[in-house]
Amino acid sequence: MIIEAMHSRMPARSRRWARSIGLVIGFVCLVGHALPGLAQGGTSSPAQPAANPSIAAGAPSAEARFSDLSEITSDNVVGLRLAFAFRTGSPRGHAGEPRAVGSTLLVLTPFPHTLLALDLDPASLGRVTWSYRPAPDGRAHGLATAGAVGAGPTLAGGRVYLNTLDGRTIALDAGTGQVAWDTLTADLANGETLTTAPLVANGRVLVGNSGDDFGARGWIAALDADTGREVWRRHSTGPDEEVGIGAGFRPLHPGERGRDLGVHSWPLSGWRHGGGSVSGPLLHDARLGLVLGGTGRPAPGNPEQRPGRNRWTSGLFARNPETGALRWFVGINAHDPFGFGAIAANLLIDRD
User: Which residues pair with 161 in a beta bridge?
Assistant: First the structure.
């Protein structure tokens, strides 16, 4: 029994959710010990050859951040019990959220990453059904200013998508762990890393870079979900064409209307290494057909070295996921002398 005092009284859907909670608790508390038999190198290591049909068909959206399950309440939560604990073998902080779907839990460890598929079936609880570890580029360690964390996998259309700290975006079959494609998205030589999870929307895998501390120019890119081919890339600074500003751009403030403000609001060529990473969580509003997120602080950190309003950093944006065209932008911290940025997680709400 996974949640000992409550398991027998819960329907199957809620039992799967409860199993995930039990494992997450153990996972958070008991990291830092070696896991024997972990797959090494850029290959998958399946514990069983057959695909897991319960997850091959797809998974719920990872961006909902809400569950409508109601069987666990304030009255019966006292009956929850730890079912099992799993040791990932990594001593670093585990910032990414595990993803539960069907009878499988997917866990991404910090860099050098390993993606683990754990069985949640009571008969084989906690067994590693497959694991995948891409061959790491050690240069990424020197760029991990916030720790070599991983932001967790994304599930969509029977595939698992993940970003690696050393700049790769990878798609795997959710049932077997076999690699569908592997694309080098970020350039370590430019100070770029990938620290957030990809977002899948409209057949695109959307990826944003990190690297404000190293003056990396911020960008968001879209890859074809089937092939990994880059479809478009838009920057947070620079000429309108590279930012994605065209006839459909509708800025909120009159001061944000003008030609190539992503160049003219910077000293000389400062926009070329001006920060503005897209390293926070991305959101997709399917009704409006927009991808929304924030841009990071401008670089360098010393504001006296970058006079001007430093557009389009430290603000919120909305883009067309098909083309990357910027629909609107709201500056939060113009010039941002204190380096606040605008990459914190946002929520989509309906308000009358």
Answer: 154, 171
